[in-house]
Amino acid sequence: MLFNLQRYSTHDGPGIRTVVFLKGCSLGCRWCQNPESRSRESDLLFDERLCLAGCELCQSTCPHAISRENDSLVIARGKLRNEDMQRLVDCCPTQALTVCGEEQTVEAIMERVLRDKPFYERSGGGITLSGGEPFMQPALARDLLKRSREAGIHTAVESCLHVPWKYIEPCLPSLDLLLADLKHVDGERFHAWTDGNAQRVMDNFRRLAAANVKMTVRVPLIPGFNADEASIRAITNFAADEIGVREIHFLPYHTLGINKYRLLNQPYLAAQTPLDAPDLLAFAEQYARQKGMTAWLRG
Hints:
two-stranded antiparallel ribbon; Alpha-Beta Plaits; 21% strand
């Protein structure tokens, strides 16, 4: 189950890359900029700005799930079946209704990935699995990495590592680079902001380090969560001292995904403005370099 396939990316690993976005995630980060990626099933998106006043095509197509209250469309998403979603998309003349999520075979995905092999070879690029959490579809992730490795394509995975180790281990023989989020090392704060278990993530980091997996740690800096010197120091210490990672990327918080919550009719629970803390970012870079790491700021 994919929700996007992006060609010619230059931000998700070295060189020019094709990024395959897989649906499904075991975390519920308040600041998530891809809320459409959380569910492992298809999602119906509704953009009210494109909806035609007086049009009742969607209501007549799915009366069991679509209604109007005070001229506003009300969608009972829990009552929608996959076939309902496609029928709604087909009937909507303005594309106010769209579906996020498409089932594809390994063969179909690889056919698209291989189209750009000359670009990978010239730039040192390749394929990156992202999400969501790509290890939530472990068989698909394993097969895509294996097929890419057999085709001589560099492989990378972007992961939050909040999955059982048995989902990760089968992918390692075909993995060239892991871009892994280290959001926090404080268990209580991690759980409060992500609904997850920090110990699971940290244990997976330790196992990956023991397996000599090439890793880059990425730290999203979120106001109120970890955008402070004490948190940055603790995260960087774990990355440098416990798992021996030599490269760390700090990702300042942004709000580019807020509109997606409106399309899904979900509340947005994080800060409404981007992180504006140049002194803190300078501290993060300087402290990581003091620990012997290569540090980068990524927008």
